[in-house]
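> run fold Ribose-5-phosphate isomerase A
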Amino acid sequence: MTPDESVVSSFKRAAAERAVDFIQSGMVVGLGTGSTAAFAVRKLAVLLAEGTLKDVVGVPTSRTTEALATSLGVPLTTLDVHPVVDLTIDGADEVAPDLSLIKGGGGALLREKIVAQASRREVIIVDAPKLSPRLGTKWPVPVEVLPFGWRSQSLFLESLGARVTVRLALDGAPFHTDQGNVVLDCDFGPINDAAALAARLDSRAGVMAHGLFLNLTTDLVVAGPDGITHRVR
Ligand SMILES: O=C(CO)[C@H](O)[C@H](O)COP(=O)(O)O
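> ok
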C-alpha cells in the first residue's frame, strides 16, 4: 500500500467508525459494500465481540459483504425476516452537495438500493475526494442490465449521451453482479438533471438498476485532512 493509499484508507476507516457510533443494540443494520463499508463491518464486529453492542443483526448488500460479516461473526438476517432496516451504513463513489450519490463502483448497486430504500436511515461514509460539485464530474453512472439484449441497452445509453464501457472482471470477461447481470459504466459527464436521467433509466426494460441514488441519503460522514464531518439531510 502506497503512503497515499494508507492515508485514504485511514480516512475511510475514520468515517466508517464514526458512523458505527450511530448503531444501537437491538438494531437491524444494513451492511454496505466496498472498502469503506468494510471498515464499518469490522468495527461492528469488534463492538459485538466485546459486548458493547448486543442483539444487532446485519442485512448484507452483497455476497462479498455477507462473506466478510460471516467471517467476523456478525449475525446476519434478510429483508424477508426484517423488511424494515433501522440504519444502513454504506459508501459512495461520488457525492453531490444535495447528498445525491453515484454508487455501484463495486457492482452492488441493485441490492444496495433495495436495502437503502428499506432503511429508516441511510448513512453514507466517504473520504473527502468523493465530494463533487455535480454528479458525473468524477465518476460514470453504473447501469446494471439484464444480459439479454445488453447491446441494445448500450445503444440506448449512448443515445442519452453516455460514453459506454462494459465493466470487465479481473480475468477480462464481462463482470457479472450477484444477480448475474452486466454492468455498463456510463460516462455522461456532469449531469444537469439527475432526476430526469434516473427516470429515463428506470423506465427502460432490461435496466435492472442504476447508480444514481437520489433522495436516499439521510446522513453523510466525510473524513479528510480537516477531520470528520457529519451532515444530516
Ligand atoms: O457502491 C458501492 C459498491 O457497489 C461502494 O459503496 C462504492 O463503490 C464505494 O466503494 P469504496 O468505499 O471502496 O470507495
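The two ends are 35 Å apart (CA to CA).
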